[in-house]
Amino acid sequence: MAYRETEKMRQRKAAARQKIAMCAYKCVADGGFRNARVTHIAQRAGVATGTIYRHYESKEELFAEIFRQATQREVDKVAEALTSPGNAKARLEYALRQFAERALKAPVMAWSLIAEPVDPKVEEERLAYRKAYASLFEQAIREGIEEGCIPDQDAKQSSTCLVGAIAESLVGPLSPTHSEQEGAGENDNNSSLINTIIRFCIQGLTGTRR
What we know:
It is a single chain. With 210 residues, the protein is mainly alpha-helical. It has 2 domains: 1-56, Arc Repressor Mutant, subunit A, CATH 1.10.10; 60-206, Tetracycline Repressor, domain 2. It has 9 helices and no strands. Helix 1 packs across helix 2 (38-45).
């Protein structure tokens, strides 16, 4: 008689997989993908290393799932920001600010998502992540063109430029080798950086000074 997995067993396996993913996420948030070793994840999850490979075919598959989960949270935040009050230009400015502020508040995870060297399987997820942002920005730009607050332009190309500009401008500040400032000085520096990024993006989009 063929073995049939029970619903209880499926739930137990799903819970174990979720716990492993959660612990892997925390490891990445603490030290990036480079320092998220399978042995550390297993210790944190309270399981044997081999147990992880019963739920994930490889470390790359596990990391790709963590990347998807982490990026979806960030994409959702930007999507939410784009529903804020105001015209499309104001909504875009708010969404870009949310992107930058959230990245600088969690620099290790943000660096991991934006610029840390990763395996090809995870890099595929990174490309999908950038496309998701570009799609959201493209829709907002089209709305702005219709509203008349954004000049007529190639919305698809402009959205890609926005994603590239904000991501690239954060690479240096998020880098693990970047010298960190302390206390209020750090907040002041972050505010100045964010304002500069937003000013550049909006001026590039509209052709006018903020």
